Predict the 3D structure of the following.
Amino acid sequence: MLPHCAVVSRAMACRSEIACAHYCWEANATHIEAREVAHGGSSVEPSTTVTSSVKLLRILNELPLWLLSAVIVCLLGAIYVPAFQLAFPPTSQPWLQYGVFVFATLMAFRLLGIALASSIDRRIRIALLEQQALAKIYKPASALFMTRHAIECRSISAPRLSHRIENAIREFGYYRNWRPRIRNAAKALFDRQESSSAEMLSGTAFPLETILRIIRENAAVADWKLMQLARWADRSTHEDEDEDTITKEQVDLLNYLANRTERLAQKHG
């Protein structure tokens, strides 16, 4: 058996070895952390950094425009107003200018984003209204003319330039004052005096009442020009009671229905 002093000395030697090993481990860990910091390493996880960046961008995106404007005005006052310049050290002027640039850029892009979002929303709403108008108004109204046929005749009283010059000279001699003379003569010089007439074939009448009923039932998706042409066409029937002929207003309504139906069908299918 070992003496008591030998056991004690050996225990103290083991304790010193354990303490030395612990000290070396701590030194090694400290050296590794210092090397990571020197090489740009970080103990913060990348997911935490990304989350913080997303939160910051979300906060900046939710800032109201009036607050951004107020911050820009305050920064400009701190830069250019002498009374406010005394409250900031001279070394802070570049940072204030940088702040003006940053907040002005945020405000400009916020306004641009609002304008783009409004434009896109408006186009979507117009497209939906056009699709509904095509399905509920234009296609049913155009289908009425599958078995009804209209003939339009056009006549030109002054097709040549010599005819229009004669009309301009005649208009120039009608008035005593120079202004009406010049105005009406210039108008007659470019007026070909076109006139048109139309009628329905096969003894069928123009389906104005059906078209008006379709427009009234779907007035929420009807455009203003269609309603105006329909109103003019209805008024023209009270002035001209001949059922065989078609008034100029009815021809305009028919042409608008045909052109609008073709345009919307090509656009929306």
In short: The longest helix spans residues 93-143. Residues 95 and 101 are 10 Å apart (CA to CA). The mean pLDDT is 79.
